Each structure stands twice: as structure tokens, then as C-alpha cells.
Amino acid sequence: MIDNKTIYEKTTTDGRPYGKITSMGVTRFKDTAAHLCRQSESLLDVGCFSGEWLNYVTSKHPWIIKHLGIDVAQNKIDEGKRLFPQLNLQCSYAEQLDLSAARFDIVTCLEVLEHIPDWQRIFETLFKLAKRQVIITVPYRESILQTPCIHCGKLTPLYGHLRSYSEDDFLEVPGWKRSITKLRDKRDKTLLRRIYRLVKPFYPWILINYRKIEM
Description:
Elements: H1 4-11, H2 23-33, E1 42-46, H3 52-60, E2 66-71, H4 74-83, E3 89-91, E4 104-110, H5 119-129, E5 130-139, E6 146-148, E7 155-157, E8 176-183, H6 191-199, E9 205-212
Parallel strand pairs: 1-2, 1-4, 2-3, 4-5
Antiparallel strand pairs: 5-9, 6-7, 8-9
């Protein structure tokens, strides 16, 4: 059984490049930021990679005065500190954070859960860390592709995506109000492709937004 710690130490800390954030990624950042609760001052990003989302959201929304980004890959945290020295980044697992001192108004977890074997455990932890809002994005109804591993020859999921998600995977959480939004792929430029997408919409990602119910 490969646990979260083992899989990430062996697949994301060995120096292999995972690519840079594209213009399509920035568009998703913009779509995600539109859902942030503005009556909040602090944000935690779980699985922050190199801090691209944190850099975007803190530069666009100055009302976020406290932030933290965590990732289990030390090499990505080091890269983030070089790229964005103003950010507060640390190598950590969400389960290791001190809940008494690490609660944030908003907790985000963007395109992370599909990489984690025990994703439900992280899902539950997000609500322990959040005071007002939890935002999750994952690929939507993805066809998981597999390719032979160059080391062992066994089939392994392409892109490290271990499972596909739909709305049914994200249930109601007591004390939280849930909403789900489908995010479009805005790469289509030609008129024909745009018309096709209107006839048969394609949503590569879903955003799950949980807000704490005020008592």
C-alpha cells in the first residue's frame, strides 16, 4: 500500500519538471478567485506547488492579509521561494499542521486530490483547517489514461491522476453549504469550435465551494 507520504516523496521531490502555469491555468485562477468570500482576511493553499495560485490571489486581492502555502515537495517549495520571495511557503502535510494555530478563513485545494491515494483523509482535514470557506477544484469526469512506467514497466496513470471525479463524489458536509460549478476550457479560438462547445459543452474541471453556515 503506497501512502501519501511515499508517493509524493518518490514522484515530486526527485527534480523532475512538472511544467509552468499556462495562460489556461491563469484563466482558471481568475474563475476560482471569483468564488472567494470577500469577508475574509486569511487563506491557506493546500498543495500549493510553487505558489502560483497564492501569488495570483494575494496580488489581485489585497484584503487577504495572511496566507500560507504548503506542499509536500521540498523542491517545489524552494522553487516558489525563489520565484515569489514575498510568499509564506513551507514544506508540510496538511495533517501535520497545528489546528489550534493554523486555522484560516479560506482553505483552497486546487487540482490536488486527484493525485492522492487517500484523498478522503485530506478532504476531511480541509474542514478542520477552515473557518469560513473551503474551495476544491478537480478534473471532471476524466478518462484516466495509463502508460507503462519507464522504471518498472507496469501501467501507471498518466499525469499522476489516480481517479476521476464527478459531483457525486463531494457530499454535503454538516454545518457547511455546498455549491458546485463546472469550469470551461477557454482554449477554443475558432468560431467552429466555439459553436461546437455551445452545442455540446465540455467542462474539464469542477469547483466545489463549501461555505460555513452561520449560526
